[in-house]
Amino acid sequence: MAKRDYYEVLGIQKNASKDDIKKAYRKLAIQYHPDKNPGNKTAEEKFKEATEAYEILGDDQKRQAYDQFGFAGVEGMGGGPQDFSQTFRGFEDIFGDFSGIFDLFGGSGGSRRSAGGPRQGSNLRYDIEIPFKDAVFGTKVEIQYSHNDSCPACNGSGAASGTSKKTCPTCHGTGQVRRSSGFFSVASTCHSCSGEGYIIEKPCPECGGSGAQKKRRKIMVTIPAGVENGKRIVIPRQGDAGSSGAPPGDLYVFIRVKPHEYFERQDADLYCAVPISVPQAALGAEIQVSTLDGKIIKVKIPAGIQNGKLLRIRDEGVPSGRGRGNLYIKLMVQIPTRLSRRGKELMEEFSKVEGENSAPKPIALAELQDN
User: Fold this and answer.
1) Angle between helices 60-69 and 41-57 (to 10 degrees)
2) CA distances from 62 to 18, 68, 176, 285 (A)
3) Which of 21, 77, 185, 314 is the most exposed, having the fewest neighbouring CB atoms within 10 Å of its CB?
4) Which pairs with CB-CB distance under 8 Å and at least 24 residues apart come from 225-229?
């Protein structure tokens, strides 16, 4: 099933304010929350869909990427099914200012989060621009980027050597504090431990208690032959380090392909334009054409070829799982702008011999398309 536009999911306009986005999500969250609709798969899917939309549109950076590039712009940034579990792991933080609406339905928000437990590292995005030829035939590119790596001094725990994390005495490891007001129970993130469920009495001096250090990393990325503009390559476990030994996130490499000066691409086929002279078009000829990979091939031009005619060269296109596409050469008949005296005499003689049509009739558009 195709994903719906995030603005459509929340029922808002594209110029909606952050407050409008928050209100729209709050309304849907209350309506479709799983605890209010037990066993209702449709309501559960709508709740997930609305949560995913809010996570993207409620963040200025993600919203800007989505507005510019659509779903492709936010893949690996929190949008999409692959990231929904991470959304739920921190959804009290996202909705902390909604006055504990989840607890109105039994407090399922807290049960979905494993407070104090290890968390997988964040996914990272890297944009790369490659030449047209490399996108067609594939290549390897070295990239360098920054990521959060596990602190070697504390092994990612955040606690100084010889010490350990302590269960938060305020929330007793739940990451939440609750307040009862009559019929309702309202939960909020524990301010003592920021919802982690533990506190670090003596932080690691190397990382300041974060358990991670910013580092630069170099890796080789293999670009497969035939990759298209806008596609992504997922490199597992090359994102930010996870906490307390949890696995790292992934690295998403998004591909931008530079346009070529002479070649264009349509699916697995390549197209280029080659100039020929009037005599070559009229009499036929054999010309030499350079392919994208630098190979010189001989192309036979039939006599009487018309301007703009396409000639197909098999198996000189983009490599694919089924072999290679074709190369299409568009012949452009070049009309001389200046003639020598002898050339002008020959053209005048040609005109007298062949005759000129001084009252030409229009050519049917269908005939032009066939040519």
Assistant:
1) 100
2) 13, 10, 28, 57
3) 314
4) 225/136, 225/137, 225/138, 225/318, 225/319, 226/135, 226/136, 226/138, 226/268, 226/318, 226/319, 226/320, 227/135, 227/138, 227/255, 227/257, 228/135, 228/255, 228/257, 229/135, 229/255, 229/256, 229/257
- Token match 């590119």: residue? 141
Name the pairing type of β-strands 166-167 and 319-320: unpaired
The residue among 98, 83, 79, 132 whose CA lies nearest residue 272 is 132
Element (H, E) at 148: strand 139-150
**Domains of the chain as residue ranges with CATH:** 1-113 (1.10.287.110), 115-165+200-259 (2.60.260.20), 264-370 (2.60.260.20)
Alpha carbons 233 and 242: distance in angstroms, whole number? 21
SS3 262: coil
pLDDT means per 10 residues, the chain with 371 residues, are 84 91 89 78 87 90 84 65 40 42 40 52 94 96 93 86 88 81 66 82 87 91 94 93 82 96 96 95 95 95 94 94 91 92 90 81 72 56
How far is 224 from 201, CA to CA, in rounded Å?
49
Q: What are phi and psi of 61, to 5 degrees?
A: -70, -45
Q: How far apart are CA 251 and CA 76, in angstroms?
A: 8
